Each structure stands twice: as C-alpha cells, then as structure tokens.
Amino acid sequence: MKTLPELLRERIAATPGGDAYRQYDRASRRWQSVSWSEFGQRVGRWRRALHAESLPAGSRIAILARSSVDHVCMDQAALALGFVPVPLHAIDNPESIAYILSDSGAALLLVESAQRWLELAALRERFPGLQRVVCLEGQATAGAVCSEEWLKRADAGSGVEPGPAALSPDSLAAVVYTSGTTGRPKGVMLTHRNVVSNVMALLEIVEVRVSDVFLSFLPLSHTFERTVGYYLPIVSGSCVAYARSVKDLPQDLREVRPTILVSVPLIYERVYARLQENPLARRGWRLLDYFVARKLRAQFGGRLRFAITGGAPMPLAVAKRFQSLGIEVLQGYGMTESSPVVSANRPGDNDPATVGRPIPGVEVRIGGNDELLVKGPGVMAGYLNRPEDTQRAIEEGWLHTGDQAAIRDGRIVIKGRIKDILVTSSGEKIAPADLELAIASDPLFAQVCVIGEKRPFLGVLLVLDPGRWAQADAGPLNEPAALRFVLARIRKLLGAFPAYAMPRAAWCSPDPWTVENGLITPTLKIKRAALEQRFAAQIEAIYAGGRR
Predict the structure, then answer these.
(1) Edge-to-edge, what's the strand order for the sheet holding 445-451?
(2) Residue 499: closest CA among 454, 435, 544, 408
(3) How does strand 429-430 pair with strand 398-408?
(4) Residue 186: is its pLDDT beyond 80?
(5) SS3 helix, strand, coil % of the chain, rounded to 5?
C-alpha cells in the first residue's frame, strides 16, 4: 500500500497540467487556478522552509487555519518530511487549542493570522514544546514570523532539496482531535494505511472523475473533509475549489458550479427550511417541484452529479425532498477513529433512511446494547497518550463506535448514541438526537437540546431564530404565553413520537450557543453536559414547576 506523499507524486506525474485547486483572490476579485505541477512546486517551497527548521523525525506540525492552498501545502510538506500534521479547528477557543498544542507536543504552528496568535500567546507557558510559529496573514509579532518571510528565508538558503522521508503505510499521517462533546478532546492517531485504505475503498463504490470539481467548505480539521474532500481528489485527479465562507456559499456554488459536494446535513437543512416557507409548499409539493426543481439545481451550480453528507444524521424528509428535486444526496456514516468512512449509500443504490452498506474492506457487527462494532484497515492506531482509552475503544480489532444500530438487508441504520440515551425516572428510554432533529426541522428553532435524565418528563432548551421569533409575535421570551406557543409548535413537529417522548417544558436561551462560550464543539455539536451545567438553575425551575 502506498503512502500519501507517494499518491501526490503519482498524481502530479499523471496530470501535471490539470486543475488541482481553485481559490478566490480578493484583490483581483477572481477565482485563480493552480495546476498539479504548480501545486507540486509550491509544496516543494514549503517543504524546504520546513526542512530548514531541523526538527526531529516525527515532529508534530499543528495547522490552525481555514482551508486553503497554503493549508494543504503545509500538510503535504509535513508528510513528505516524515512529520505528523495536527489539524486544528480554525474557530476553536484558545483554551482548547492550548490543550491540544500541549497534548500533541506540537513543534511548529501554522496559524491564520497574527491576531489569532496573539490570543494564544497569552497561554504560551502551557505548550513549551512549540519552537516556531508561522502566520499566514499579518506582520511578525510575539515571536511569530509571517509565512512569506519564512518561505523567502528558505529560498535564500543553501538550495539543498530535502529527499523524501522513509515512510511506511504504518507511519503516522495525522493526529486528529475529536471535538470533545464530553471532557477533553482525544488525539486520534491515523496512519497512512488508515487514510489510503479509506480513499481506495470509496473509489470502488463511487465514480470520481478527473473532470470533477469539488467545492470545499468544511474545515480540514474534520476527518470527513480530509479524506473525502482532500485526499480522495488527489487520487482521482479532481479539482478542489475552496469556498470563501459559509456566508458566501450560495454565490460560490453558482460561480464554481461543482459536480460533487461534500457537506454536513446543516447546509441541506437550511435550504429545505427555505423551501418549506415557500407559499407553494402549502399548496402541494408537486406544484412546488414543478416550479422550483430547476431553480434549486441552478442554485447548486446546475451540474451537481451527487452530494455526499456525513458527520451528523440527515433528516429523512430533507433527503427525500432533495431526491425529488433531482439532487441525489448520499448519506454515509463514520467517525474520526475509522478514518472516517464506515458505510455509505451509492448512486443507484441509495436508501436515505439508512447510512448505506459498509465500504469494501470494512466489517461490521452488532455488539452488546445494540452497539455498532467496526473492524477494518481504517481503524485508528489508537488515542495519543491514552492507552487505557485505546484499550476500551478497540477490543480484538473491533472498534466500539458508541452508536446503537441495526443492520437491515445489509444496510446500517443508526439509532442513536449509547451515552446520549435518556432514561426518565419512569424508566422510559429516549434518544434525544431524534427529537432534536425533528424540532430543528422548524427554522424557528436554531439550536435544540432535549433534557430529562432521571426526571419525570422531558424538557427542552432552545435558541430561537430572532427574526422568525419577531414575526411570530408570541410575546417576551420565556413568558408563560411564549412558552405555550413554543411547546404547541413542538408538539406538532413530534406528532409521530410516543407521548412519553413529548417535551412538556421549555426554556429559551436569549443568546446563541457558540464555540467561544463553550456550549458547542467546533463541528457544531451541542455539549449536553456543558449546557445542563450552564443552565442548571433554569432546568431546576422547569422541574420545580411539576408536570405541565
């Protein structure tokens, strides 16, 4: 099996003039393309600069920057020299980043801007192993150097071209930190074998062409994006265009006109919510399909072959609606610890009620408590610095996913997180994620957290969309009339659920839950324990009021 640097060298040799990357240049207000040959030259420049640091083999190279050509240049330069990339969430909070820099033992940090580094520099004593900080934007400050100056130093150096490192498929290719919904994030050690086997398996089930164009907007700290939206296009020779921002995504879709889109369900849910608000939807979906199908496809660029979704559950109604409008959304399942893809639906074999069949080379079975267990070449080498956690996670080669599942006709159906199952004081077991998905399908509810562990009934914590709440004209937040309005709306959304799964009380947060206030992860998953701790007084008030 080949290593990731070998795959890049083969791609550059095979299609040197093909488009590798596109990126928007704000100065010229144009999309600029980089060929595979040009990309190879740019990686070489970064490799020489990194080699000049004289770091020991296996050094950790942390990257705290948005997805861009420079980001992947540093990633590839590190891999070619036998170093280990540590991708960080660009929006993560300084406390979490400081912990990861310390835990990983990062020797060098590539950071988006000098301002971002100044936020971290205040915590400098927590990661003493860091030797060099390189900033993509801004001037040198607080011991950091700007990237262009750093690269120019290497250009003016001895000119010695570093040779390829001695890598094997079992060499580390990355340490990717989990988002940490509970406790400190864990560093997942992924090898070249892990990642390459995942990429090759995907190419067996999905046709990806040299002519394909990906639009990338998920962070490269997300293993889903790293494998499917970054390394896979290198093997297939496809072009990756880096979106400017989520805010600019609608315009980027129209301008880039991707043929393949890799996304989390949130993007599709937002489009679905806008469709639901269309007056035609209330008169019948068939009429809406006729009028908007072509327009919707045009909003996605007009030439989308299929879209891939993962990272979170896709509401069935959303997937079916996109299918009816001529956009096939292929849902898959995976986790960082499996590099990440375990299963996926295929074009022509797509059941949106499931997460598809296991990819080639991956075995699955159902263990105790209906837990999904996974075995295959993509299963991680372990958690960095956590041998006991590694032993608990992997037993006799089987990875414990922590997800409850069923296997039906060879397809996997995910039922929920084992740890997230709520057990009320009456003994009813409820998967809160299912309820939260259903409630969040209403655009009024921007963020949702169902509570009720060891309580007599379920409650729900909410963040409301300000504009839609104003339109609802239901009164001041958390006043009795407003809460009755909210609960009535939720009851309609949960009509298909049993009575014991119906929240009977609610509290609406006046402020959104963010990464900065520690209530969601950088991948936008809620931190249930943190929310319950932050709003403990409000929760006690909910249950002190008794049954509603």
Answers:
(1) 445-451, 459-464, 505-509
(2) 435
(3) unpaired
(4) yes
(5) 40, 25, 40
Distance CA 309, CA 355 (A): 10
For the stretch 403-448, pLDDT in tens is 999 999 999 999 888 877 788 877 777 888 889 988 998 999 999 9
- The CATH class for the domain spanning 422-544 reads alpha beta
* Start-to-end Cα distance in the chain: 61
Distance CA 519, CA 516 (A): 8
User: What is the percent of the chain where pLDDT is above 90?
Assistant: 72
Residue 391's CB is within 10 A of a number of other CB atoms, namely 11
Q: Cβ-count burial of 278 within 10 angstroms (0-12 exposed, 13-18 middle, 19+ buried)?
A: middle
Distance CA 295, CA 258 (A): 16
How far are the Cα atoms of 1, 199, 336, 356, 361 from residue 205, in angstroms, in the given order?
A: 19, 10, 20, 11, 12
Q: Beta strands of 317-451 (E only): which ranges?
A: 329-334, 341-344, 357-358, 363-366, 371-375, 382-383, 394-395, 398-408, 411-417, 422-423, 429-430, 445-451
Is the domain defined by 4-17+34-167 classed in CATH 3.40.50.150? Answer: no
With left for phi above 0 and alpha for psi between -120 and 50, is residue 243 left, alpha or beta? beta
Q: Residue 185's pLDDT is what?
A: 86
Strand partners, 133: 109
- Which residue is associated with the tokens 């409850």? 404
Tell me the β-bridge partners of 263. 309
Contacts 24+ apart (CB under 8 A), 67-70: 67/216, 67/217, 67/218, 67/219, 67/220, 67/225, 67/242, 68/23, 68/136, 68/242, 69/21, 69/23, 69/34, 69/39, 69/42, 69/242, 70/110, 70/136, 70/147
Output b/e per residue, 444-467; b: 16+ Cβ within 10 A.
Answer: bbbbbbbbbeebebbbbbbbbbee
Supply the pLDDT for residue 547.
44
* pTM (2 d.p.): 0.85
Tokens of 415: 């039922």
Distance CA 261, CA 301 (A): 11
Please indicate whether the domains covering 4-17+34-167 and 422-544 agree at the CATH topology level: no
Cβ-contact 266, 312 below 8 angstroms? yes
The residue extents of the domains of the chain are 4-17+34-167, 202-417, 422-544
Q: Tell me, what amino acid is at 195?
A: V
